[in-house]
Design brief:
Blueprint (H helix, E strand, L loop, with lengths): L2 H30 L3 H74 L1
Keywords: Coiled coil, Membrane, Transmembrane, Transmembrane helix
Length: about 110
C-alpha cells in the first residue's frame, strides 16, 4: 500500500465515521423530538400550574387576613376579660365593704 492509497483509505474511513455520527445524531434527535401534541399538553400543564399557584396565593392571603382578624378579636376579648376581672375585683371589694358595714350596723343595733 503506497502513500496515496493510505491517504485515500484514511479519508474514506474518516468520512464514513462522520456519516455514521451524523446519522446517529439525526436518529437521536428524531426519536427524542417533542411533538406538537406533547407541546400542547405541556402548555396545558403549565397553565394549570399557573392557575393552581394563583389559587394557592389567594388562599394564603385569605388565611393571613383571617388570622389577623382572629388575633385582633382575641386581643379585644382579652382586653374585655381583663376589664371584667377588674370590675369583678372591685365589686368583690365593694361587697365585702358593704357586708362589714351591715355587720357593724347590725352589731350596734343588736
Amino acid at each position: 500500500m503506497n502513500r496515496n492509497e493510505f491517504i485515500l483509505a484514511t479519508a474514506i474511513i474518516l468520512f464514513a465515521a462522520f456519516l455514521l455520527g451524523w446519522f446517529a445524531s439525526w436518529l437521536i434527535h428524531r426519536l427524542s423530538r417533542v411533538t406538537r401534541a406533547e407541546m400542547g399538553e405541556l402548555e396545558s400543564m403549565a397553565q394549570q400550574l399557573h392557575e393552581a399557584e394563583e389559587a394557592r396565593d389567594l388562599a394564603v392571603s385569605q388565611l393571613e387576613e383571617r388570622e389577623a382578624d382572629l388575633i385582633a378579636r382575641l386581643g379585644s376579648a382579652e382586653a374585655g376579660l381583663r376589664a371584667a376581672q377588674g370590675e369583678l375585683a372591685e365589686s368583690r371589694t365593694e361587697i365585702e365593704e358593704l357586708r362589714s358595714y351591715i355587720d357593724r350596723k347590725l352589731g350596734r343595733k343588736g
